[in-house]
Amino acid sequence: MDEENFRAFYEQTARNLRAYLRSMVFGQDILDDLLQESYFRLLKAKLPDAMEDSHRRNYLYRIATNLVHDHRRSRKPEPLAEEPAVPSGAGSLDAAQDIGRAFDRLKPRERDALWLAYVECFDHREIAAILRMRTASIRPMLARARARFADILRRHGAGE
Amino acid sequence: MSDCPREPEVAAALANGAVAEELRRHLAGCAACGEAHSVALDMRYLADRLSAEPALSAASMWWRLSLRMRREKARRAEMPLVWMGRIFYSVILLMAALLVALVPHFSRNPAAMVGVGVLIALSLTVGIALWGWSRSKI
Predict the structure, then answer these.
(1) pLDDT exceeding 90 applies to what percent of chain A?
(2) Residues of chain A contacting B65 with CB distance shorter than 8 Å
(3) What whole-number distance in Å separates Cα of residue A63 and Cα of residue A97?
(4) Shortest distance, CA B44 to any CA of chain A (angstroms)
(5) Residues sharing a CB contact under 8 Å with residue A157, sequence separation 6 or more, in sequence order
(6) Rounded to 10 degrees, what is the CA torsion of A115, A120, A123, A129?
(7) Do B65 and A36 touch (CB under 8 A)?
(8) What b-and-e string marks burial along B3-21, b requiring 16 or more CB atoms within 10 Å of the CB?
(9) Given A31, A102, B41, B109, which is the most exposed site by the fewest CB atoms within 10 A?
């Protein structure tokens, strides 16, 4: 990939990929390292120039997801979903913060799947490839994740 | 709550910025799609907020990655020399051990002693050159 193509692809994908990583990892310090590493591995992979951007984007998210999983494995466990990560009576807090905290209470796989499905709009086959799961497993996992997320938000909204 | 085969359409419609009237009617009657719609809206709201944070510019990222690629290329190019050095040091060590074992036999033969001396001097020269080269890379 030459500089011009890289820049165009980066402009298209960097903000969203950074937001994806931001939602997956705790700690600002690691965020830009993971972003840089994702693009570095993409460049190193020497994908064919003729490859469609959608496939390249798919590949990039696969790299980023693997990096996030490696990062999760290498650090101490995240807070359990049952812990009160969402403070009660937080109605005055910024809505995005509330949603973010509810999102953080999901299992990592559920977070991955929700983001890839509803923000990046990958289809089930693509999500399965990125998460290294069976395509048939994605639909029920998404349904579970959706229900849990909606439930957390509902309970939080009711002043859990 | 059972899922619905039309659920992927919800995220796609939101991404396109418009939910068709027909899908809107479906959303009103389908609990799974209604939930997917609500979750997708929340997720997109969160994503918008998170993506508002500035990422590194494309030029800056390209520069950093090019630098890393060049470093990696240089490291790869040095690998054969590094291995040659390791092999050389191992051979030197083996030879030294062998010489120590054979010194009692050579002491009676001056020509063999000169030969051993030349070999040691040669090995030391190459060894020092390799060591100096490896230090200059740090």
Answers:
(1) 39
(2) 6, 36, 39-40, 43
(3) 27
(4) 6
(5) A91
(6) -70
(7) yes
(8) bbeebbbbbebbeeeebee
(9) B109
Band (pLDDT 50/70/90 cuts) for residue A76 is: low
The domain limits of chain B are 7-51, 70-136
User: All domains of chain A, ordered by start, with CATH?
Assistant: 1-76 (no CATH), 83-160 (1.10.10.10)
- Inter-residue contact B61 to A10 (CB < 8 Å): yes
Q: Which of A83, A82, A101 is nearest to A157 (CA)?
A: A101
Q: Which residues of B touch A15 (CB under 8 A)?
A: 51, 55
Mutation site for B-interface testing, chosen from A146, A148, A154, A156 by largest number of B Cβ within 10 Å: A146
| Cα A83 off chain centre by | 21
Distance CA B138, CA B134 (A): 7
Q: Do B61 and A36 touch (CB under 8 A)?
A: yes
Q: Render pLDDT for A92-104 as a digit per residue (tens, 0 to 9).
A: 356 777 888 888 8
Half-sphere exposure of A29 (CA within 13 A, CB side): 1
Element (H, E) at A59: helix A53-74
Integer CA distances (angstroms), B26 to A96, A146, B4, B22, B32, in order: 27, 18, 11, 6, 10
Q: Which of B11, B32, B46 sits opposite A100 (nearest CB)?
A: B46
C-beta atoms of B47 and A19 within 8 A:
yes
Q: Whole-structure pTM over 0.90, yes or no?
A: no
